[in-house]
Amino acid sequence: MAAETAPLLTSGGVDQRPRHVAIIMDGNGRWAANRGWPRLVGHRRGAERVKQIVRACPDLGVNWLTIYAFSTENWKRTTEEVLGLMKIFRRYIQHEAEGMAAEGVRLRFIGGRDRLDDKLQGLMSSIEARTACNARLNLTVAINYGGRDELTRAATRLAQQIARGEVERPTEADLAACLDTAGHPDPDLVIRTSGETRTSNFLPWQAAYAEYEFTPTLWPDFTPDHLAQILDRFGLRERRFGGA
Ligand code: IPE
Ligand code: IPE
Ligand code: MG
């Protein structure tokens, strides 16, 4: 959809398109199992979907996209699946780096990096540096991300700042500045595919006032048209933020 034709949804004259969309990309394993295929085939198909959704975002008016790729809990899966996923992440960065740099995508990662292999960590740092001046789409990928882990690391940092006398009485802004998402706007809308209606440790602080959309579509079947329909529905919501 071209920028000029994107629907401008308004309520009381306020532009209601979400600026920041976050997605829990779920259902790759079931998508593959439904066809009698190995789970990793579903993950590979899921990665193809990511490319399409990333390309569609700017024309849909989405300037920030945060996607959940691997949780702190996903290490419980088989070694084969975990290693397969890590390979998909490496390949995605290697193959997409050029295109993302050229298309104005700024790529960043959230989550603990220490547990990731050195090669992946190196690729992550170099693409972050390479795309740091881009602003057409801010793409954040959550790898080895868990909201509780992020908050624990942030609390540790904040405690160190207090111990050094840099912070006296911590505010919400002080804690937010210690999160992996420091400087990112909060998501307006969180989408979860595959029919599950839980948040699975994704952005508990940042999404405290987000709208949620749960769709039965499995991630490998989720198209830019599905996203466009969800964005249209978002425009009809009334967000109150605690006001009357
Ligand atoms: C989401 O798909 C991708 C990751 C969690 C890495 P799943 O692998 O969770 O797919 P289902 O939920 O088993 O279908
Ligand atoms: C959440 O999906 C994590 C990602 C999409 C990366 P899971 O499939 O891991 O979540 P649960 O196990 O259903 O809660
Ligand atoms: Mg799942």
Task: Give an overview of the whole structure.
With 244 residues, the protein is of the alpha/beta class. It has a single domain (20-234), classed as 3-Layer(aba) Sandwich (Undecaprenyl pyrophosphate synthetase), CATH 3.40.1180. Helices cover 39% and strands 16% of the residues. It contains seven helices and eight strands. It has helices at residues 28-33, 39-56, 79-102, 118-130, 147-163, 172-176, 224-234; strands at 10-11, 14-15, 20-24, 64-71, 105-110, 137-145, 189-192, 211-214. A six-stranded parallel beta sheet has the order 5-6-4-3-7-8, with helices on both faces. Strands 1-2 form a two-stranded antiparallel ribbon. Strand 5, helix 4 (118-130) and strand 6 (137-145) form a beta-alpha-beta unit. Helix 2 (39-56) packs parallel to helix 3 (79-102) and helix 3 runs parallel beside helix 4 (118-130). The longest helix has 24 residues, at 79-102. 35% of the residues are buried. Residues 1-13 have low confidence and may be disordered. The chain binds 3-methylbut-3-enyl trihydrogen diphosphate (2 copies) and magnesium ion. One 3-methylbut-3-enyl trihydrogen diphosphate binds next to helix 1.
